[in-house]
Amino acid sequence: xxxxxxxxxxxxxxxxxxxxxxxxxxxxxxxxxxxxxxxxxxxxxxxxxxxxxxxxxxxxxxxxxxxxxxxxxxxxxxxxxxxxxxxxxxxxxxxxxxxxxxxxxxxxxxxxxxxxxxxxxxxxxxxxxxxxxxxxxxxxxxxxxxxxxxxxxxxxxxxxxxxxxxxxxxxxxxxxxxxxxxxxxxxxxxxxxxxxxxxxxxxxxxxxxxxxxxxxxxxxxxxxxxxxxxxxxxxxxxxxxxxxx
Length: 245
Hints:
Blueprint: E1 2-5, E2 8-13, E3 27-36, E4 39-48, E5 54-60, H1 68-79, E6 83-87, H2 98-113, E7 118-128, H3 130-138, E8 145-151, E9 173-178, H4 186-199, E10 203-208, E11 217-218, E12 221-222, H5 226-243
Parallel strand pairs: 5-6, 5-7, 7-8, 8-9, 9-10
Antiparallel strand pairs: 1-2, 2-3, 3-4, 4-6, 11-12
């Protein structure tokens, strides 16, 4: 099966419809390629099988890659009424320049916007670990995204720090973090939240006591306990509130 997006032919791998036991909607899911900078990034898509148009979500995985747990999470979000693209930003290199990721996100927006089941005016961005930093970094810069959820990100890391762009943030952002995060100290998140508040930027903060960095996945698989389910619901509810259902 091939998808044509903005004049580009994108090969969809394994995009046969797959019925699942859904909380709300039956979904289809599978591997796709998103073309950016002349290269095909191996990614993953899940969408409700009928209806729409739905809000679209771009998901940026952690530094550990597009692990199976993200496939499960994408499917769960699709069941909630979103078309979700988990973009494989590490397809060609483990660490990419910010400009490369920015262009990939813009091409991911084009990918989703070309679909009949996506409302291009209702797009969200979410990311984990390095993807959390990218969410904090690009939500102020890419106007296509109307809301974002940053999971255990790094507001003071990189050549351009997300904290330096607080004055440009107009889209609402939910920050999700654990108090036992050793890679990204909770103190930095409280500092970032204070700076967001002082700037009048729209944000919400959800903190989980005792949870470490990357707490949503264990061994590459999505956690299914009370904490993980609550955190997932926080994200889904936030996008429903900010993007509409």
